[in-house]
Design goal:
The structure holds two protein chains of two kinds. Chain A is α/β, with parallel strands linked by helices. Chain A is built from five helices and eleven strands. In chain A, helix 3 links the parallel strand 8 and strand 9. Chain A is globular and about 55 Å long. The chains are: A alpha/beta, B mainly beta. At the A-B interface, loops of A face strand 3 of B.
Chain lengths: ~250, ~90
């Protein structure tokens, strides 16, 4: 081997987490629960990188947002199965409780929220983009924050809505938390909510007034993120308070 | 002789402090249009051969990172400075 192998100190080193539970979140997504020895804690909104190494040494890595609150002992990641993906089919189909998983993190600090930052919070999610926003919602509850919080959440259908039941429970017991769903492909009988992709008109109806200066976090596929950010700025929201995180084309 | 003149080894500790900052919250100034924005706000193009971070306003290439099995190439020519807070 040529020379010494130098590693970044501390948290950005690769290390092994243990899979302590896997659970279907929806038909196409899975929750992975990990315990990472020596985990220093994270801030809601941060992500980890996951790295897989094949027997021939080939490596592939992907970023997954942390969906669990900092107050929880286990890390929860949401993995959407992409049929032609290099990484996600392994994580959703092959990974078992007790397996080790190579990861590094927590990473990021810009797309992050802590209860002490205050509110109001306006969160916009497309599909599994809800993961880092769920970490914020769970942290808000765990920390006893009274910041008002509204989530606008686009899913294909009720059964493909990640965290649907937990969000129902949380909103039922917390009058300052509100969730507005839009179901883009199929809706349950009697559905009176939105049934289309998030657009500027919907943002105008659901977003808090710019006067309230909400802290806004948008996460999802790139077209959704960009259309929402454009709509918000067009409505007069301060671009500096609209934080975005795009799913990259390298996903999977 | 200028006693303030040392060599790079003398700043190993300082640069060791500097190069541990949380990158997404650092503010970078685009050397083309002058926009100052958090790295997390910039656009990133990630491919097998490397990563380019571009100014969200003028598309100037701010940061390029290429990697081979032995190490990294980091090109910061597109930013005139980075500003970040010291670790607590």
């Amino acid at each position: 081997m040529a020379g010494e192998v130098r590693r970044l100190p501390g948290r950005l080193s690769w290390r092994i987490g243990e899979v302590v539970e896997t659970r279907p979140a929806t038909p196409r997504t899975k929750s992975l629960f990990l315990e990472v020895p020596g985990w220093e804690g994270h801030t809601a909104g941060q992500h980890v990188d996951i790295r897989l190494t094949a027997e021939d040494g080939y490596q592939a890595q992907r970023s997954y947002s942390i969906a669990s609150a900092p107050e929880e002992k286990r890390l929860e990641l949401i993995v959407e199965r992409l049929d032609d993906g290099e990484v996600s089919p392994y994580l959703t189909d092959e990974l078992r409780t007790g397996d080790g998983l190579e990861l590094r993190g927590p990473i990021g600090g810009w797309f992050a929220w802590e209860a002490k930052d205050g509110g109001p919070l306006f969160l916009v999610a497309g599909g599994s983009g809800v993961a880092p926003l769920m970490a914020m919602i769970r942290h808000r509850t765990a920390a006893g924050s009274d910041a008002t919080c509204r989530l606008l959440y686009s899913s294909r259908s009720r059964e493909e809505t990640i965290f649907a039941d937990e969000l129902d429970r949380l909103t039922a017991s917390d009058s300052s938390l509100e969730v507005v769903h839009t179901l883009t492909r199929s809706q349950p009988p009697g559905w009176t909510g939105y049934d289309r992709r998030i657009d500027g008109e919907m943002i105008a109806e659901v977003a808090p007034s710019p006067d309230e200066a909400p802290r806004t976090f948008v996460c999802g596929p790139t077209p959704l993120v960009e259309s929402v950010a454009t709509a918000l700025v067009g409505l007069g929201h301060d671009a500096g308070r609209v934080k975005t995180e795009r799913f990259g084309p390298t996903g999977g | 002789m200028d006693e303030r003149r040392l060599d790079g080894n003398a700043v190993g500790g300082l640069l060791g402090e500097v190069f541990t900052f949380e990158a997404t919250t650092a503010e970078g100034a685009c050397d083309q249009c002058g926009t100052v924005a958090h790295v997390g706000e910039a656009m990133a193009y990630v491919s097998e051969i490397g990563t380019v971070v571009r100014c969200a306003r003028c598309d100037n290439a701010l940061i390029r990172v290429a990697q081979n099995p032995r190490g990294y190439f980091l090109d910061l020519r597109g930013i005139s400075y980075l500003r970040f807070e010291s670790a607590p």
